[in-house]
Design goal:
single chain, Ubiquitin Conjugating Enzyme, 2 domains, 8 strands, Knl1_RWD_C, Blinkin, KNL1 protein
Length: 209
């Protein structure tokens, strides 16, 4: 189920939908009825515009919420002119589904980031730092004599695409080659980020086996 929207207004002039706990609003402005076409037993209408507006206070919101909304807005921008994709009310359910799918995946990503901030120490994760659409994970393990930064580039395709990464080694011999070997064994999919962190911990940070 990817119904991530809430209908807050539907009139002859427009429909308004909220996403992400009212932090993102979509306003759909209707045009005149279309002769001979019906939608939900009522005359179908053309759509003049679809306008998205963010209401998230980025200064007050946690970084995980900011990156989630940033990724969703980048998806929206990447789709070009939404009115061309959605010229009539008939096309609106598909547009809402497409948006909801991305919102759902990005919202889960935000929950994963919050999980790592709270429980990261269990995986030898010292720090989870979010900037723009990148997350820097600082790992440190005495048993493995290692400390390094793993920076992952997030996108609105998460978790269906492999995450580009870079590694900065501070202590020890764990570098890009070792991280790449671990990441190659982690398939994309649900909780991709958490599984990446778990796999790095289990394969590289627990010390000699």
């Amino acid at each position: 189920s990817f119904t991530e929207w809430e209908l807050v207004d539907w009139s002859e002039q427009q429909a308004v939908f909220n996403f992400l706990y009212d932090s993102l609003t979509l306003t759909v402005v209707f045009g005149p009825p279309i002769d001979g076409e019906f939608f939900a037993s009522r005359p179908s209408r053309s759509i003049i515009s679809l306008d998205f507006e963010s209401f998230l206070d980025e200064e007050q919101a946690p970084p995980s919420s900011c990156v989630v909304l940033r990724l969703i807005l980048r998806f929206i921008e990447s789709q070009g002119e939404w009115q061309e994709k959605c010229p009539t009310v008939h096309d609106l359910p598909q547009a809402l589904f497409d948006i909801s799918l991305v919102v759902n995946r990005c919202r889960i990503l935000g929950q994963e980031l919050e999980f790592l901030k709270k429980w990261g120490a269990k995986f030898h994760l010292l720090e989870t730092d979010i900037k723009d659409t990148e997350v820097k994970l600082v790992f440190s393990s005495t048993a493995a004599f290692a400390k390094f930064d793993l920076t992952l580039a997030l996108s609105h395709d998460y978790p269906s695409a492999v995450l580009p990464f870079s590694v900065h080694t501070r202590i020890g011999n764990i570098g890009e080659k070792e991280i790449a070997a671990v990441l190659s064994s982690v398939p994309v999919g649900h909780h991709y980020l958490r599984r990446i962190v778990t796999s790095i911990n289990e394969n590289l940070l627990l010390g000699p086996k």
